[in-house]
UniProtKB/TrEMBL annotation:
SUPFAM superfamilies for this protein: FYSH domain (SSF89895)
Name of the protein: Ribosome maturation protein
Region entry Disordered, spans: 89-114
Composition-biased stretches (Polar residues): 92-108
């Protein structure tokens, strides 16, 4: 794998006031969880945290969702319950991060033209 190259997997749910995002470890584990809820969430999600993008869809800046935002949208501030609701109702999105381009070390001493 080239430096910086990775796959980002997330579930996006457009709420009434905010867009909610949960990051996943893999698509396969997510699909297993959807079919069998006995699969532990720890094997599915990257972190037990819900993010909001402030109505920027799935691509906006990711900030941790406040308890007030969770309570207003889902009727609970329990992040485990909210994560389950986002996973059940949201849309899976997978994106490939490109590898880094350009020089790897700009301070190459005598190799740099003066």
């Amino acid at each position: 794998m080239v430096r910086g190259e990775a796959t980002q997997v997330k579930v996006h749910l457009k709420g009434n006031d905010e867009d909610f995002v949960v990051f996943l470890d893999s698509t396969d584990d997510y699909k297993k969880w959807l079919a069998d809820k006995s699969v532990p969430l720890a094997q599915v999600v990257s972190s037990f945290q819900v993010f909001v993008t402030h109505k920027h869809g799935a691509q906006g800046p990711f900030n941790a969702a406040s308890k007030q935002a969770l309570e207003a949208e889902f009727g609970t501030s329990n992040e485990d319950e909210v994560i389950k609701k986002v996973l059940e109702k949201g849309n899976l999105q997978e994106s490939q991060m490109t590898d880094r381009q350009g020089p790897k070390n700009d301070s190459q001493g005598g190799m740099v033209a003066h």
